[in-house]
Amino acid sequence: MKMEFSFFTMGVGVISIKYGKRKEYVKNKEW
User: Can you give the pTM of this predicted structure?
Assistant: First the structure.
C-alpha cells in the first residue's frame, strides 16, 4: 500500500509539473 501511494503521488506530481509547464508555454505563446 505504501509503495502504491508513493507511486500515485509521483504520478500526480509529474502530471502537475507537465501541466504547469504547458500552462507556461501557452501563456508565452499568447504573449
Answer: 0.41
